[in-house]
TrEMBL record:
PROSITE patterns: ABC_TM1 (PS50928). The chain crosses the membrane at residues 21-43, 49-72, 79-99, 181-206. This is Amino acid ABC transporter permease. It comes from Streptomyces pulveraceus. The keyword Transmembrane applies.
């Protein structure tokens, strides 16, 4: 317990850093994922191409490489922001590709007849998507969206290699101070477990309230 009790503030700072990265990146991923999913099912060909390119490129790019591209590449084009913001951009954009595919799968579970009926009533594509299709699709995608955000929380550990304060990065300081590396990682694992179980509990509540009965 000494490694935790004697360095509680350090662990706390890393834990809060990971929580902030997870929350902000999740919001960005959900917004971008929704927009890209809308593009992928849009009747406009150029929007479908945009959504397809976004998903294809990001899903097939290693996250570490994306971090290098964002944190080291964007400043070369004059965009200078705190590393924490760059980390959120990298995590959020990367995860949005997976959120997009989850949402698109949910949209495809909605019978096409419902969309056709909405259009026959004079509703636009946006109105059909927002008032008819997405509310039904949302119910079926709650569990996979939760799993994707849990993966995002664990992926945030990569940010520590780019001078971003997060939970895994605390091991460097503790290792230099001579603490047992095993117990250092045990308490880091406990921290990640708290975060992932919290996300899981939240989505379990959402699923019980709005999920599709199976």
């Amino acid at each position: 317990m000494d490694v935790l009790t004697e360095n509680f503030s350090l662990y706390g700072k890393g834990f809060l850093g990971t929580v902030e990265l997870t929350v902000y990146s999740s919001i960005l991923a959900l917004v971008l994922g929704f927009l890209m999913a809308s593009c992928r099912v849009a009747p406009v060909g150029s929007l479908r191409v945009l959504g397809t390119v976004w998903v294809t490129v990001l899903r097939n790019t290693p996250l570490t490489l994306l971090f290098f591209a964002v944190l080291l590449g964007l400043p070369r084009f004059g965009l200078v922001l705190p590393f924490e913001v760059f980390a959120v951009l990298a995590l959020g954009c990367y995860t949005s590709a997976f959120i997009c595919e989850v949402l698109r799968s949910g949209i495809n579970t909605v019978p096409t007849g419902q969309g056709e009926a909405a259009r026959s009533l004079g509703m636009t594509f946006g109105q059909t998507l927002n008032t008819v299709v997405l509310p039904q699709a949302f119910r079926s995608v709650i569990p996979p969206v939760g799993s994707t955000l849990i993966a995002l929380a664990k992926n945030s550990a990569i940010a520590g290699a780019f001078s971003v304060t997060e939970l895994l990065g605390t091991y460097k300081t503790l290792n230099e101070l001579g603490y047992s590396i095993i117990w250092t990682f045990v308490w880091i694992a406990v921290g990640y477990l708290i975060i992932t179980l919290s996300i899981s509990a939240l989505f379990n509540v959402l699923e019980k309230r709005w999920g599709v009965a199976r």
